[in-house]
Amino acid sequence: MASEQPPAATDDVDVVTRAVLTASRLLVAISARSLAAAEERVTLPQFRLLVVLSTHGSAKLVSLAERLGVNPSTAMRMVDRLIAAGLVTRRVNPDNRRETVLELTGTGRALVDDVTAKRRQEIAKVVARMRPAARSSLVAALTAFTEAGGEPSVADATAAYPLGWPEGSP
């Protein structure tokens, strides 16, 4: 295991920032591996789109693009590819026939569930290799980090957002 930083070093914003960036690389790598193991081949940005639809339900293209933080034309290209792959459908909005609504197919929902389960398993393996005291410290640090970033705790968000992502957080 990597050696721990001396306590004084953890007060340094640059040291903490480097540690968070390093951890985020690990989490992105875990996400990429989980996605690569899926039968359906989608990119990470396409998967984010699937997660947003899974979390928030059906959506208009403009709303989806806003949630993803991309231009509607970029979202449309992703949607077209996901429709071709059978992961998303487009239908006329029954409340306003001039609008179309996008939603996950059963295959798309199964993909999100499968990739999320694989990611959870891989993260659990990493956490299991940590000493119990380090796990407690990690929970405290990540809780403080997410609170400082304005994210609700998973316990608060789980009922409304099963993947732990609230409105506007792709």
Automatic annotation (TrEMBL):
InterPro entries: HTH_MarR-typ, MarR/SlyA-like, Tscrpt_reg_MarR-type_CS, WH-like_DNA-bd_sf, WH_DNA-bd_sf. One of its GO terms (molecular function) is DNA-binding transcription factor activity. GO terms for biological process: response to stress. Keywords: DNA-binding, Transcription, Transcription regulation. This is MarR family transcriptional regulator. It holds the Pfam family MarR. SUPFAM superfamilies: Winged helix' DNA-binding domain (SSF46785). Residues 13-147 form the HTH marR-type domain. The keyword Nucleus does not apply.
